C-alpha cells in the first residue's frame, strides 16, 4: 500500500513539474516572440479594401514587433480557402488572419463544408470596425436615386443584375435584405473579391452593387460609377453628398460588414495577448486611424472580450437574414 501511495505521489509530482515546465517554456516563448516572419492571411484577392487595411496594420506590426509581417492573399470559396488554412495552421502566433462577417460568420450557414468552425477554431485578437455599404450603379444605368432604382427593378423583375464579393459576403446579404424590404428582384452575380466586381461595374457589365464604401469610394468620386444611397443611419464624412437610404424613404435596410483579426484558437495565451495588444495599439494610433478612415472604413476598435458578444450577435443577425431570404448552402 505504501509503495502504491509513493508511486501515485511520484506521478503527481512529475506531472506537476512537467506542467510547470510547460508554462515556463510558454512564458519564455512569449517574451521572445516573434523570432521570425509573421504571416497575415487575407482571404480575398489583392487590391480590395480588406487587403489595403491589412497591409497598413501589417506594416505597423513589423515596426512594433521587430519582425516582418507579410500579407498573403489566399482567395477562393467566399473566403473559406484562406480561412481554413489559418484554422489548420500551427497555433504558434506566426499565422493570423484578417477576417470578416463572411469568413467568420455567414460561411457557417452558406457553405455546405466550409472546412472550419468560425467560433471553435479561432481566437479573436481585435475587432477593427466595419465597412458601410453604399449602392452604386453603372454610369449607363438611367437611375440617380434609390427610388428610381426600385422603380426600374419592379418594371422588369430579375432583369437588373447586382454584383457582390461572393456568396455570403456582406454585399450579397445586404442586397438580399434590401430586396426583401422593398419587394424587388434582381439577379445575383458573385465575384471573388471587390477588385473584379469594381472592374465589371465600371465597364457596364454589372448594373448595381451594394458594395462596401472603401471598395468603390475612389471610383464614384472620379465619376467612373454613380453612388445613389448609403445603407447607414447617417451620411459618411468621406462621401457627404451621398444620401442615406432613410433619407430616401427606405427603412430597415441598413447594413455594415465588420472586420477583425484572429489567430488559431490553441495559440498560447501570452502570445495571443501580445498580438492583441500590438494590433489594438496600432488601430488606435492617430496616423493609422486617419489612413484607414480615409478609405471609408468606420473604425470601432474592440478588445477580444468586448468583441466576442458583438460577434455572437452579428452571427445571429445575419443568420436570420439568410433564413428570411431563403438562401440555401452551396458547395465550396
TrEMBL record:
The keyword Signal applies. Residues 1-30 form the signal peptide. CDD domains: PBP2_Bug_TTT. Keywords: Signal. Gene3D superfamilies: Bordetella uptake gene, domain 1, Periplasmic binding protein-like II. Belongs to the UPF0065 (bug) family. This is Tripartite tricarboxylate transporter substrate binding protein. It comes from Microvirga brassicacearum.
